[in-house]
Amino acid sequence: MDEDQGPSQIVPGTAPKRTMGDRLRSTKNRFFTKDGLIGDYDYAFLFTPNLPFMRKSRKAAPFFGLNDRMPTLLALLLGFQHALAMLAGIITPPILLSGAAGANLTGEMQQYLVSTALIVSGLLSMIQITRFHILKTPALCALIEIAISFMPPKVMLRIFPPIVTGPTVMLIGIHLIETGFQNWMGGSGPCANPTSDFFARCPNISAPHALPWGSAEYLGLGFSVFVTIILCERFGAPIMKSTSVVIGLLVGCIIAAATGYFDRSGIDSAPAASFIWVHTFKLTLYGPLILPLLAVYIICATEAIGDITATCDVSRLEVEGRLFESRIQGGVLADGINGVLAALMTITPMTTFAQNNGVIALTRCANRSAGYCCCFFLIIMGIFAKFAASLVAIPSSVLGGMTSFLFTAVAVSGMAIITKGVPFNRRNRFILTAGLTLGYGATLVPTYFDNVFTYAGDNRGLRGFLDAIVLIMETGFAITAFVCMFLNFVLDEEIEDTEGHDVIPTTGIVTPKDVNGGESARGADSEDIQPVGHNTTGKRDEKLIHWRHGLVFFGLQDAELAGANPANECEGDGIFGLREDSDSFNDRMKGINMQEARRRFTSMEAWELPKHPSAIAPEGVRTNPDMDPVPVPMRTWSLWTILAYWSTDLMNLSTLQTAGSILAVGLSWREAIPIMFVGTTCIAIAMVLNGAIGSRLHVPFSVIATGSFGFYLRYFAIVSRAILAMFWLGVQCVNGSVCVTIMLSAWAPSYGRIPNALPESAGITSMGMCSFFLFWIIQLPLLLIHPTKLRPLFYVKLLATPAVVLGTLGWAVKQAGGGGDIFRLQPEFSPGTSKYAWLWLSCMSSVSGQWSTMAINIPDFLRYSKSRNAQNVQLIFVPIVFTLCGTMGIITTSATKVFQGDGDYLWNPLDIVSLWLGNGSGGRCAAFFGALAWLIATIGTNVTANSISAANDLTVMFPRYINIRRGSIVAAVIGAWVIVPWKILASAATFLNFMGAYAVFLAPLSGIMAADFWLVKKQRYDLPDLYDPHGRYRYIAGCNWRAFVAFIVPVAPNLPGMALAISGYPAVQISEGAQNLYSFDWLFGFVVSIFLYTTLSWVVPAKETLVEQTILTRGDGIEIEGTRDGSDIENPKVPEKVLTTAGDGRHTPESRGLNGGTG
After folding, report:
1. CB–CB of 682/896 below 8 Å?
2. pLDDT tens digits, residue range 137-174?
3. In this structure, what DSSP letter does residue 547 have?
4. Residue 961 lies in a domain
5. Burial 191-221 (b: 16+ CB within 10 A, else e)
6. For residue 1030, how many other CB atoms are within 10 A of its CB?
């Protein structure tokens, strides 16, 4: 095997987990030993030139993979080399966009933009290399790329194949060459077409050695750069080849300075250091640019896919299969997030560094340590403002000689994608012709669409929309991308399209012909062969075109999107986050038939989930993995996870407002604190009783409900819970939008003054709608996190929310000079009176009802628990944390009345945070981070209390089409956009009261579940029959009449009180007794349903549903084992007839006999 090649199969490496001691020892070895500092690397290799007549060495440098140990000196050297290779790509876009041909900003602002581009590129790349598992118009539009990343990877690759990415990238380069060449000749600004005497010379008449545009001197300066780049490529050492553009730029600058073309004034006046946010820009949304930038970000996604593929290949990572698809998906997501963050850091958005594959192929280094060093050097370059000022002072002709070369390289890389990844049959030639006709025409004649729309009215919205269309139609690469994408989708692949090839029916091999009609000497295994699948009759069922993965983007990224990013997004590992794989560079990923792509979007059958061979459901019953018992490896919830979950979920906006609502009805803090404690203790009892079912059987609520309600009646409980979960998900989105409004108003006060273009009947303003949409987009990716991976979200919320609660409390007390007057208030009713007692019970039941949903769906989370007993901590922990948070809310609210001019209490924490906006820059900073913390808290509440609950319900209702991830998306869409929560909150008081009284229905549901498991079934379920519509839990026609009666009886007496709460007096008049009964509706419904269901089940037992031991599985297909405590249900292993456990979870002798083979 050639030593330049890797082994035939390389398993992707992963970073081993290390303790703190391991890290300290590694640091010591890295910096204080010869092996760690220098190693045995041949440093001469990097600096050996390729001069004529020199003896060429056949020895190849070693390849440094992702987690390989690398000497510190070598990491610094290669990191610096990569930073220099990236330098031109980072600085060119901000210089061009802020120069005379663009925004024509001042020299100081240009210097700031260059510094910021370098710093932000280093920061974002460092974040990505670390593998965190993660506004102006560009920041908003970058969200489209984030949305694209959540497409299924195969669908993404179907939509953006080489036939789309190739011509798009080529047109991007062609579009930019004009700017580069104009700069080469003296400048691309007004001096290229002077309209006044001031610009008669380039860059203007006041510049040193100003000359007319196109002068021979300018041509010579540009050629000095161009020729230097060529010489470095031909004769330079490896380190010179990868930095040839920078070396050419340096040579051009030296010549320009020696001949007097270099202006030092900007360098002398520049500060010594700079950083992000030294200058800020007004936060505005420019309507006409939204559609064009959305198009640009779609194109950016296509470019990122090609970059990632090429870089993964040269870094010896596989470029097909699930891992590669995951890298593609994560890469596009990271590219979009980088666009948002870069815009918020006051620089044009960052995208992937397209030359990664070339640099890695040259240096043979894809190591994380070198990546960190590269980021460090970029940040240092940006911080030293004198360096940025030197870059800004580079004469236009020198810069043009470099950029013309780079922009042409972009176009050539697009050609490479086309030639290597697109078979030249008739269909593909037609697509390329159509796309390039419109795109290239728009590039050459960019004003052709100016006079299409003749609207001259006063409607600014319509005018902006038409301007946006014109801008898109006059952007050549955007038209090319959309035309190629559309035609690739609608044009069928036909077998006759493969011109110039012979198809051998028995093998399916396509053999190319030479010009004489014979087979090419390269044979059927040539890199350029595109195998076509078909059947033995010569008629294919489906044509699979294999794309070659030579999508090498050796050009610069789109200059209009600005700086480069060394993170090439190989599954979040960045450019240096690479693992070894030595598969060849040819025929690695299958292209997809476009008929299949269309069918997937238009046919319900195509949206079906893959049929899951269930470990427990009977044959013929459709399930999916999210409905089955959780396998042991996915049980990731420990005691600390449960504590973190409740710490974060209880500390939210509604908890802090609950105490205030108790005080508002006439009780004092002396009553409020015990009410909160007793109310949450009651609900905690229900949570522990029902949570035990999930922690023992490891199945969701929607499956557990079968045992108590029957296979079909359970759908009533499921639908009831799902509707409520989606409704509150939408309401929480409205709260989250308020957080976004405060954050953006803190960032740019002008955001709060956005004019409203929506009618009053909409129930929301333009600013509110924008904030709502932004919150929904931010929240959506987090809603898709699987419950087994929620722990990091809990920890983030656990850090953010207590900090803002305590900070708000401290600020309010300090402003008021104490805790306020709430602690001196007395209840309006004397203790011991009936009104006092009923009011006390009413508030206690309201506290319990606030968490009534969780009493039902708690098994959805605790099914992932490692231990069945860990969940018992809820009984103590939930009341304590809730009461503590409520007490802090009381103190904070009391203090606000002291310094409020109108003397009113502020019950909503967001109202307090919004007060900080008026306290100068420091107050705005506090408001921003305070709102950010509440935004995190709101998202956490939506994920845990609403999204996962609704998703589990939808999974059971539609198992053929919906799993937890799809269910979360459906719930997010319905809750936010179908229910229209902002309109409900603005106008539908009756509906709000109804949803608030929904606990009347939920309390009996949770009581019936608890009674069935603990008192009737004695903790023994037949788990397989919970999935069987004809099993022992069918009852009568799939309905358990006992559960129906136990539900109706406690609900019916509370309906009059519920009607009064919804419609109010005098619309509804009921007796005082009915009102008092409704005062403790949740407690009444929970207790009565338990008593009634248990009594009916004892008097008229459903004997067929009772088993002596818990049956975990049956049949001759799959065994599921249990541990001693009954907490573990393993994955399928051995065929078995019946496996049972005793009621306490221990295996019976019969089950042990079956396992031992002696039964």
Report:
1. no
2. 444 455 555 555 555 556 666 677 778 878 887 887 78
3. E
4. yes
5. bbebeeeebebbbbeebeebbebebeebeeb
6. 12
Q: Using CA atoms, how far apart are residues 521 and 524, in angstroms rounded to an integer?
A: 9
pLDDT at 1031 over 60: yes
Rounded-to-integer distance, Cα 840 and Cα 449, Å: 71
Task: Tell me which residue of 674, 646, 648 sits closest to 659, measured CA to CA.
Answer: 674
Q: Which residues span the domain enclosing 637? A: 632-1099
Q: Report d(CA 1134, CA 1119) in Å as an integer.
A: 5
Q: What is the CATH number of the domain that holds 944?
A: 1.10.4160.10
Please, are residues 398 and 225 in contact by the beta-carbon 8 Å criterion?
A: yes
Do 1134 and 1094 sit in the same domain of this protein? no
In a domain, 224, yes or no: no
Of the candidates 383, 390, 90, the residue with the CA atom closest to the CA atom of residue 253: 390
Domain assignment present for residue 251? The answer is: no
Q: Say if residues 352 and 331 touch (Cβ distance below 8 Å).
A: yes
Sequence letter at residue 1086:
F
Amino acid identity, residue 308?
Answer: I
Residues 792 and 645 occupy one common structural domain: yes
Task: Give the confidence band of 529 by pLDDT, cuts at 50, 70, 90.
Answer: very low
Domain for residue 486, yes or no? no
Dump pLDDT digits (tens) for 912-951.
999 998 888 888 888 999 999 999 999 988 998 889 889 9
786 and 642 assigned to the same domain: yes
Radius of gyration of the CA atoms of the chain, in A: 34
Buried residues in 834-844 as b, exposed as e (16+ CB within 10 A): eebebbbbbbb
Distance CA 1132, CA 1114 (A): 12
What is the average per-residue pLDDT within 980-986?
A: 82
Side chain identity, residue 1159: G
* Helix and strand counts by DSSP (H, E) for the chain: 46, 8
Which residue is associated with the tokens 């100081």? 108
**Whether 988 and 1137 share a structural domain:** no
From 254-268, 567-581, 833-847, 1111-1125, the region with the lowest mean pLDDT: 567-581
Q: Tell me whether strands 589-590 and 546-547 are parallel, antiparallel or unpaired.
A: antiparallel
User: Rounded to an integer, what distance in angstroms lies between the CA atom of residue 1049 and that of residue 1062?
Assistant: 21
Say whether both 797 and 677 belong to one domain.
Answer: yes
Per-residue pLDDT band at 1013 (split at 50, 70, 90): very high
Cα–Cα distance between 573 and 130 in angstroms, integer?
Answer: 7
Closest CA to 439 of 460, 461, 414: 414
Cα–Cα distance measured from residue 894 to residue 818, given in angstroms and rounded to the nearest whole number: 9
Helix, strand, coil shares of the chain as percentages rounded to 5?
A: 60, 5, 35
The DSSP line for 233-269 is HHH--HHHHHTHHHHHHHHHHHHHHHTT----HHHHH
d(CA 80, CA 445): 42
Contacts of 564 (CB under 8 A, 6+ apart): 86, 89, 90, 121, 350, 351, 352, 353, 354, 556, 557
Both 1039 and 1118 in one domain: the answer is no
Q: Given this model, what pLDDT does residue 1041 score? A: 96
Alpha-carbon gap, residue 57 to 1128, rounded angstroms: 60
Helix axes 216-235, 162-184, angle to 10 degrees: 130
Give the CA distances from residue 1109 to residues 684, 1009, 1145, in Å, rounded to whole numbers and listed in that order: 28, 19, 9
Q: What φ, ψ does residue 1036 adopt, rounded to 5°?
A: -110, 110
Round to whole Å and give the CA distance between 720 and 915: 39
Is the bond preceding 1066 in cis, omega lying within 30 degrees of 0? yes
User: Can you list the positions of beta strands (E) in 412-557?
Assistant: 501-503, 510-512, 546-547
Tokens for 1014? 């603990």
